[in-house]
Amino acid sequence: MLRRKPTRLELKLDDIEEFESIRKDLETRKKQKEDVEVIGGSDGEGAAGVSSDPKSREQMINDRIGYKPQPKPNDRSSQFGSFEF
């Protein structure tokens, strides 16, 4: 394997301006998202209300991933199939 000297990278003014614009854009999006969560929090669906109740947290995760658990029946036919005693 050939060894070569490291490539020198130079920071240009355009790069700095692009970085600043992207950072400001991300900050505004974050603030908007926080505002939406605060408004949703008054309805009981915000992140602050969810963290205290594990069932609602689990329900929120299930809704987010599209999982809809079906309750298991508690009769013997479901446990042992169609065996007859």
Automatic annotation (TrEMBL):
The lineage of its organism: Eukaryota, Metazoa, Chordata, Craniata, Vertebrata. Residues 76-85 have a biased composition (Polar residues). Its main location: nucleus. The keyword Mitochondrion does not apply. Keywords: Cell cycle, Cell division, Coiled coil, Mitosis, Nucleus, Ubl conjugation pathway. It comes from Microcebus murinus (Gray mouse lemur). GO terms for cellular component: anaphase-promoting complex. GO terms for biological process: anaphase-promoting complex-dependent catabolic process; cell division; protein branched polyubiquitination; protein K11-linked ubiquitination; protein K48-linked ubiquitination; regulation of mitotic cell cycle. Belongs to the CDC26 family. InterPro entries: APC_suCDC26. It is found in: Nucleus. Pathway: Protein modification; protein ubiquitination. This is Anaphase-promoting complex subunit CDC26. It holds the Pfam family ANAPC_CDC26. Residues 29-85 are annotated as: Disordered. Component of the anaphase promoting complex/cyclosome (APC/C), a cell cycle-regulated E3 ubiquitin ligase that controls progression through mitosis and the G1 phase of the cell cycle. The APC/C complex acts by mediating ubiquitination and subsequent degradation of target proteins: it mainly mediates the formation of 'Lys-11'-linked polyubiquitin chains and, to a lower extent, the formation of 'Lys-48'- and 'Lys-63'-linked polyubiquitin chains. The APC/C complex catalyzes assembly of branched 'Lys-11'-/'Lys-48'-linked branched ubiquitin chains on target proteins.
